[in-house]
Amino acid sequence: MINRKTMQKHMREMDLIALGHRPNLSKPYPEHKVYPYLLRNVAADYPNYLWGIDTTYIRLKRSWMYLAAVLDWYSSYVVSWALHQTLAVSFVQRQLIRL
What CA–CA distance (Å, rounded) separates 36 from 45? Predict the structure, then answer.
């Protein structure tokens, strides 16, 4: 067993960083363009009027899987979802075409 400082030293020597939360991740990067929110005055008054898509990753023992889900904003119902090993644009597009 080694102590924390020794582990940090070895990680610095090998140029490794830990996967985890780091501070200030939600601060905007000054060079990135800010897009307007187009749904500001739109209300989801009934089902199937407004959908959104979200992608996220799921950590497995030795790899990652990506989850794409289509959500109905009125009811928060998951309309469709799929898992894939890569986050390719075609994966998300196929998810939308199936609807």
Answer: 22
Of residues 92 and 10, more confidence is placed in 10
Task: Identify the CA nearest to 77 among candidates 58, 97, 51, 55.
Answer: 51
Which value, to the nearest 10 degrees, does the dihedral of the CA atoms of residues 21, 57, 63, 5 take?
A: 0
Residue 24: other Cβ atoms inside 10 A: 5
R_g of the chain, CA atoms, integer Å = 20
According to DSSP H, which parts of the chain are helical? 4-13, 89-97
Return the percentage of the chain with pLDDT > 90, whole number: 18
User: Please, which pLDDT band fits residue 46 given cuts at 50, 70 and 90?
Assistant: very high
